[in-house]
Write a structure and sequence with these properties.
The complex is a heterodimer of chains A (317) and B (267). Chain A is α/β, with parallel strands linked by helices and 317 residues long. Chain A has two domains: 180 residues, HUPs (Rossmann fold, 3-Layer(aba) Sandwich), CATH 3.40.50.620; 116 residues, TPP-binding domain (Rossmann fold), CATH 3.40.50. The longest helix of chain A has 17 residues. Chain A starts with a strand and ends with a helix. Chain B has a single domain, classed as HUPs (Rossmann fold). Chain B has seven helices and 14 strands. Classes of the chains: A alpha/beta (317), B alpha/beta (267). At the A-B interface, helix 3, helix 4, strand 7, strand 9 and strand 10 of A face helix 3, helix 4, strand 7, strand 9 and strand 10 of B.
């Protein structure tokens, strides 16, 4: 029987929303394989986040230790691998966050497991389980099978609903057998990129700008703020140094799926589309009537964004 | 202290090429597709060259694959890498196999630092560097980035983003993570994987290309390395993703607002 272990994540004591989406994926897997679902939470001083997670009706194994304060892959991987063994979990997964992408392949190596990254869906039941995942920047959808006894995966949070708050899971202390002195990695610092706006991956609305802004993101940001939206950008805009790195939407940036995505001055390069085409409604504002973005936009407006965005902002009031 | 640097150079489909799935779903159409050095590996090569310029040492580039992988090794040698290792393997690969082969090469070469692209842009798995570090029992710093933008002065001066201590025992790495930027210090030897904004790779010069032709490429048959060459992640079927159908063009902002309110109910 294949039990499922979902590695949840907290940051500064707060449970990450993406983990609740991973929990749904874990529930689906437990259904498909007839196994039990449990969650792991690692960190230092994480009781509140653990209680919050347990309130979603899942048994939570809490690995709380000073040595786990920062998500060092070298320190976290053995704890997760030990927990997978202790819970008899042969399916070990997490939301595809920066932390999980760093840590889980190391967990897989310890468990002699194969791994699938950014899974968007599952197929088959029991031992015939398959994982659906994008390849070639989302140009191809692959159905893959992992042939090792233990299978590790990350899921794309936007492809699974957030697990609802229901029931009460048990909280269990997980053993932490990591010797801080033996670690070859040391955390020197973390600089948070602070913003009053919602997180890109959690926003209901996103206004994004590309090369067409010519570096002037003011109309993009003004519209975003009027709508309570997050601001996104293309790789070109980020590479030019116009906006911070973590605004980038795309295959190599963040994958988002908001209710409304407004693409302003964005031509629609494949790598950008891969990051946002799951949005419910896409609006494109671009001067070039032949821009590829219009082929996937629900509503296209051929216009210069500099007069169009402020006008849109005024008329949406 | 001079540094010995091991970098990877995978042959992948050019990201500008149109990727189409074969009608039977067994693979992609390779006809008319160009191949090149994986862009993330290109950044890894560039970073290794900058570290070599700063500290002295040697840049060894390794590629795993069929006969044509030599083209990508030559591309890295033309950028300035010193010598190449071609782990010859004609079958399918996955990060489990790749990292096992790289671990063998690492044990033979004993570099101070292995620098890999964070992922190859064909299978987009983002795993090999992490598997490699775990197999070798080393520290890792994935998604290495530059603190400043690629328009910064440090980049104009072609300085490395990775900071290796003068005594050659540690590397400090700035990483892009969710919600901010993290800095790690890792004891050498170590494994680093590169993100897009670590550097802007150089173009190979004509003399560089000429010199590369004479540089050593050692071929090692993968089967000689004592590694299980069976992939553990097997692709059963490929398909084109569901197409998103384009919508309508609106005449002006008024029509857009109307549609968003009444039709899409998105505002």
């Amino acid at each position: 029987m294949a039990n499922v272990l979902i590695v949840a994540e907290q940051h500064a004591g707060h449970l990450r929303k993406a983990s609740l989406h991973a929990l749904s994926a874990g529930r689906e897997l437990a259904r498909r394989t007839g196994g039990r679902l449990a969650a792991a939470l690692l960190g230092s001083g994480i009781d509140a986040a653990a209680a919050e997670l347990a309130a979603h009706g899942v048994e939570v194994h809490v690995a709380d230790a000073a040595v786990l304060e920062h998500p060092l892959a070298e320190a976290w991987a053995p704890v997760v691998a030990d927990l997978a063994r202790a819970t008899g979990s042969t399916l070990v997964g997490a939301a595809a966050t920066a932390v999980a992408k760093d840590v889980l392949p190391r967990v897989a190596a310890r468990l002699e497991a194969g791994m699938a990254t950014e899974v968007v869906g599952f197929g088959g039941e029991g031992s015939d389980l398959t994982f659906r995942r994008p390849m070639w920047a989302g140009n191809v959808l692959a159905e893959v099978e992992i042939t090792t006894p233990v299978k590790v995966f990350t899921v794309r949070p936007t492809e699974f609903a957030a697990a609802p708050r229901e029931g009460q899971g048990e909280l269990r202390r997980a053993p932490v057998a990591v010797d801080a002195a033996s670690l070859r990695t040391r955390h020197l610092g973390f600089v948070e990129v602070k913003s009053a706006r919602p997180e890109l991956t959690e926003a209901r609305t996103i206004v994004a700008g590309g090369r067409g802004t010519k570096g002037d993101f003011r109309p993009v940001e003004a519209l975003a703020d009027a709508l309570g939206a997050a601001v996104g950008a293309t790789r070109a805009a980020v590479d030019a140094g116009w906006v911070p790195n973590d605004w980038q939407v795309g295959q190599t940036g963040k994958v988002v799926a908001p209710e409304l995505y407004v693409a302003a001055g964005i031509s629609g390069a494949i790598q950008h589309l891969a990051g946002m085409k799951g949005s419910r409604v896409i609006v494109a504002v671009n001067k070039d009537p032949d821009a590829p973005i219009f082929q996937i936009a629900d509503y296209g407006l051929v216009a210069d964004l500099f007069p169009a965005l402020p006008e849109l902002q005024a008329k949406l009031r | 202290m001079p540094l010995k640097l091991l970098v990877t150079a995978k042959r992948v489909e050019d990201p500008e090429s149109r990727i189409q799935v074969k009608p039977d779903g067994t693979g992609i159409v390779t006809e008319g597709v160009n191949y090149k050095l994986n862009p993330f590996d290109e950044i890894a090569v560039e970073e290794a060259l900058r570290l070599e310029e700063q500290h002295g040492g040697e840049v060894v580039v390794v590629s795993i694959g069929g006969a044509r992988a030599v083209t990508e090794l030559r591309a890295a040698l033309a950028m300035g890498a010193d010598r190449g290792i071609h782990v010859r393997h004609d079958g399918p690969l996955d990060p489990v196999v790749v990292s096992a082969l790289l671990a063998k090469v690492f044990e033979q070469e004993k570099p101070d630092l292995a620098i890999l692209g964070k992922q190859s842009i064909d299978d987009d798995q983002n795993q090999a560097g992490q598997y490699l570090a775990e197999r070798l029992g080393l520290g890792q710093a994935t998604f290495a980035s530059k603190h400043d933008s690629l328009e910064s002065e440090a980049e104009q001066k072609r300085l490395p983003g990775l900071a290796v201590s003068a005594d050659g025992t540690r590397v400090t790495v700035v990483r892009e993570v969710d919600g901010g930027v993290e800095t790690l210090e890792v004891r050498l030897p170590a494994v680093v994987t590169t993100d897009l904004r670590l550097n802007k790779p150089r173009f190979a010069s004509l003399p560089g290309i000429m010199k590369a032709k004479k540089k050593e490429i050692r071929e090692i048959p993968a089967a000689s390395l004592g590694v299980d060459l069976t992939p553990k992640v097997a692709v059963r079927k490929l398909a084109a993703p569901p197409a998103r159908k384009g919508g309508v063009k609106v005449a002006d902002v008024d029509e857009l607002v109307r549609k968003l309110r009444d039709e899409a109910k998105a505002v």
